[in-house]
Structure formats: structure tokens, C-alpha cells
Batch of 3 targets.
Target 1
Amino acid sequence: MLVDLVHVETSDGVRLDGIFQKAPKPGISQLGVDVIILHHGVYGNFYSPSMFDEYSDGLLANGCAVLRVNNRGHDPISRVKVKDDVKRYGAAYEVIDESRHDWEAWIDFAQAAGFERIGLWGHSLGAVKSIYYMALNKDTRVKFVVAGSPPRVSCSAFANMKEGREFKKVLSRAQRYVEDGQPDTLMDVTNPYDILLTADVFIEKYGPEERYNVLDYIPRVEVPLLITIGSCEAQVNMAFNGLSEEVGNLAREFHNVTFESIPGADHSYTHQREYVWNIISRWMGNL
């Protein structure tokens, strides 16, 4: 299917690229919105194979246009044009709070393209950022959010898990680098999961201030919010240990939040993508 290569410039001057696909029969979406913006997770991008390939086909077949886009955290390390300069971004250098500029820029693009009913669908860290954006920005142009496997980002929770001793060692190492005037030192860590990032980004993201604990932001989202988590994720990733139960409790407390545990599913829903699509498309169609 033909796609248009598109790009935006954020309010702080960062250029981001993506692809735009028009629905074969625009204007008759069966999914409650006319366009959905798909946001990748950590290390991801819009051009690598992922489950969004399959889900884009389903969205288009149901009359919904698709924007599959990069945010400034794409790839492990990337060089991004910022005004007249080129800077390092990617997962290693990103500050999650700055992603709000990225979400806003892509929503602006969708609005400028003539779409009035806009949906967000983020996966992994892209899901955390989508919840974070809507909790703080409360963008009325967005009609709903689908959050696929948003990891918990919580220093206190990690420290109290069985893997907590190793996590605290990594956090202490990052703090020493910063105290020694080396905040940009790259750290290749395996706790809370495998990731490459600078010492100051590790502290900003996983430190004791807990700026991005998704459980704190879910209650502040005002639009319909669907959260999915694979039942096997907690077995291999401490960021999901006990998370399904906590999200389930929030879904029972807040009427706009829906939670679905995906049986037998890993983080990418490898063998359960049709099952996930059926849940999400049914939820969207019933709004």
C-alpha cells in the first residue's frame, strides 16, 4: 500500500519523521476516530517491522487513516536535526517530559490534515508517554488512548523487588557519575531491563523522584483509556511485576479506564496479535 513520508518540527525545534496512510474509504471509519497516531516504544521507530504493521492494515480496512511516527526517543542513539543543529537523541538521551512536544506536533499535523477525531495508540514506553501526555496536556483533540503494555517506571517498586539489590547498585553507579561531573557517561544496564542510556537520563527516568510512574497518571487521563498487558510479561520483566493487578484496580475505580490481560502474551503479543486486535477494535467501535 502506498504511504506518504511526512515530517513535523516540534515547538522546541526537533524534526521528526513518519509515514501517513490514508484509508481506502475515508470518512466512514468504524472505529470512533478518523486517524490514529501510532507511537513506538523504547529503541523503536516507524520503519522497523513490528506489530503495528498488522494493526495498521486493520485500521485502514476499517476506514481509519494511520500516522506511524517517530518520537525523539527513536532507536538506541539517533542524530536528530534541531533547528540548524544536529543533536544526539534516541533512547539513550531522551527526557520523557520532552516527548510532550512530540505528541503535540503529530496531533497538530493530524488536525492540519483535516482530521477532527484523533486517537492515540502507544506501545511500551510509547504507551507511558501517551498516558503522560494526556494526563498533563489534556488535549481535547484526542478522543481516546490505547496503551499497549506500559511498563511501571518506579524507583521504590523496583528497589523492593527481589531484583532490587541490583537495581540499587545501578542507580548508585549513575549517581556517582553525575556527582563526578560525568552525567553523559553511557551505561549499558540490564536492570530494570536491557537498555543503553546516560547516567543522568537513568536518574531522571528511574530515580527516586518517580516522575513517570504510570500508575500516578492513569487516574488523570480524562478520555477513554484502554490498557493491555500480556500475562507472561511479569515473568521476564520486573517493570511488569504486579502491574496487571494494580492497573486492574484502577480500571475498577475509574469509569473511563478499561484493562485487558492478554493470556499467554509476551511484550510484543507475538502469538496473540489477532486476539489483541479483536479486543482493541471492538473497544474502539463501541465508544
Note: The chain has a mean pLDDT of 95.
Target 2
Amino acid sequence: MNDRLLTVYAPPVEEDISPGSDLAAILVNALRRNRIDLKDGDILVIASKVVSKADGRLLSVKDRAEFEDLVKDSSNHLVAERTYASGSTVQIVRTHSGTVQAAAGLDQSNSSGAVVLHQEDSDVSAQKLRLRVEEAFSVRIGVVISDTISRPWRIGVGDFALGLSGFSGLDDQRGKPDDDGRVQSVTVR
């Protein structure tokens, strides 16, 4: 068994993030202000909403019907759908980037009423941020752009890696024994 130490920091960001914000500079300043010194191999996790806001990936919709049209435009396959007594419909869809999410991952919370869209290419966004932060700290790190995902029709959400840079994010267990000694043949975490 490998013993590993995991330390997590959540430094507060004092600046408001809006279209055109220099997110990399804001992150570097927040890390320095909170005396967090990045080291080689560290992983920086950033919420996709923050990246989208800085990139100006915001749209306004006038009503629920426009929002539902935007969900359709942001997806390529309907997985499931439920209409509520209020008349609103929630769709679980496969997005253009391949994720399966409620409402195509579109979000209206904490966005002054605008709809927050995913990045055009989350891996590219992660790479741009990684390169700037690495330069500021003279380190080699990984960056994860995370987004919220739910279990459809159930309570509770979690996060997943929407974009990655600086490491693969996969742990190939094929050919390796599990804790019981059974050789794994398909597991890639």
C-alpha cells in the first residue's frame, strides 16, 4: 500500500471575474496573497464557470423556452427528458465535447442572470492557464478545469474534469492486480 499525503488549499479570490478578466494573473495573485507556493507536480483545479466568465462565454436568454433552445444547440444527443408540473423541461444530453449533463452543463447561478457556457475547448483553456501559472512560479504543474455533474433525477452533485493540461488524468490499471490479486483487464481510472 502506498501512503500519500494530499493537501488541498482553497485560496479566496477577492476580484470579481468578468469577461476580459486576466484569470491567470488573478489566480497567481490569489496564490501569492495566501502564501501558497506551488511546487513541481502540484495540481491546480479551477471551476469551469470562472474560466467561462473570464473568457466571456455568457449569453442572455429572455425566457425558459430560449434556455431550452440553447440546451439543444449545445448538445448532439438527448439522453433523457422530464417535464415538470410548472411546464419546465429538464433534459439530460450529450454535449458537443462528449459529456453527459443536465441542461448541457449550462448554468445560470451566480452569473447575474446570464447563461454560462462551457469553453470552446476546455483542454486548451487549461493549457493557457497552466503555462502562465508555471511561468509565474517557475514550476511544472497540472491544471484541471472542473465542472459540476449530477446523477439525473437524484439529489446531490459532484465535480469532474472537463479540461486537463500538464498530465494525462488517467490511471491505466489494465494488467495490474487489484487489492485481491485479480488482474484487471478493462479498468482505466
Note: The mean pLDDT is 90.
Target 3
Amino acid sequence: LGATVTEQKDNVKGWDGNQLKMRNIIASYKPETGKRVLICAHWDSRPWADNDPDPKNHHTPIDGADDGASGVGIMVELARQFQQNMPEIGVDLICFDMEDYGTPDWYEGQHDDNTWCLGSQYWARTPHVSGYNARFGILLDMVGNRNSSFYQEYFSVRNAKSIVKKVWNKAHEMGMGGRFPKRDGGAITDDHIPVSEIAKIPCIDIIPMYPDCKESSFGPTWHTLGDNISNIDPATLGMVGQVLMEVIYNEH
């Protein structure tokens, strides 16, 4: 789709001390320009359905249709749009590996937030281009469920308040304010934190919140075998993608 593609491959240490083969994939448009934005998602899926209602499934890998693949799907469509009509600025689409390899719930030892987001931690410390910088980053995580509403996540507001305002205002201008409420979405460990705090690129997280869901504030399919293609809604994907398109094509 017309991008310059870079891969990062290395071994990183997992929560259990095992060495894991990491692979980040970066697709760059207009790599020669310094005026850039970064769009990212994780392309791995959870190796364990540790929030599944059936304990027998807690060691079974999930499809990750929403939790991972939905964000990547939007990025692939963005790439198709860029090939047809290049924005004025440069854009990097990054697939981070091993976001979802964090310590499983069934592990009885110590849980450490740093066991999550291994691919983005690696990239933030050793970016694909030496001295890499971007105006801002937008992370997509779980952006495909039919009932998703995207609240304003705490670390996004703390580290990139102006970008939260830019994206949510655009969603409201486009008539999508009901799905992008300007309300507190809680604090979430996700790939935007290494981008903001290690790479020093202000990055926000577009991620849903389900305040009334008894299974999880991330929704009933989160880290369960129910996170499959049957729960993905093209209209939700299209809505988030259209908001991103408006934000990207209005950068000059």
C-alpha cells in the first residue's frame, strides 16, 4: 500500500522470565518529512483467556478480534486511503508486539505493570529511526465492538491533553459525540504510556470504557474466548477511522 516498511526484531523478557521473540512492524508515509504523526495499535493477542467466565478456558489463547486486531484493521484501511490520497504530513503506522503478554490473572506471584506493553517499551527506547519525533501519537485499542463508547483516559489527558481535546472535539463536530463522551475514562496501562513517557511523544489512547459492565470495565468479551469476529461492528471501525482521517488530513 505504498509505505516504507521497517521491522524491529529482538528478544525481550516476559513476566515469567522467558525470552520472547518480539516483532514490531512500522509502515511509514513520507518518511523524509519531519512533520509527522504516529498512529499505533498492538497486533498480538492475549495468550490466555484469563477473564473468561469458564475457568477451563483461562489458559487458552484468545482470537483478539477487538483487543488488537480492530486497531490494526483501521490502520490497514488508513494505509489504503493514504495510497490513494497522501496527507500533507508524514504518518507512521506502528504495529506493536506483546502489548498483551502481561502477567496473567491466574499467576499467584507478584504482578508488575511493566510486563505489559513490551513491544512499545522497546520501540520507545530504540525507535526505528534514530532521533525519531512526531507531533503526537494516537493509540487504537479495542476499537471494533458494536457497543463501544470511548471515554477520555487518564494518562492521555495527563500527557497529551491538547490531543485529547483535538480528537474528541472532531468527533463531536462529526456528530459522533455520543460515542466519544467528554468524561473521565479511568487510568489504563497501555502502549501510549511508553510513547509519551519514554519516547517523549504526547500520545493518547482511544479505548472503550463500559462503566456498567459487571464482567469488566473493558466490556464483556475482554480477555475471553468471546473476543472473536462475531462481536466486531464495521460501523464502529468506520466511525473511529473517519475521526482519525479528519484529524490527520487537517494537520499541515
Note: The CA atoms of residues 42 and 96 lie 4 Å apart.
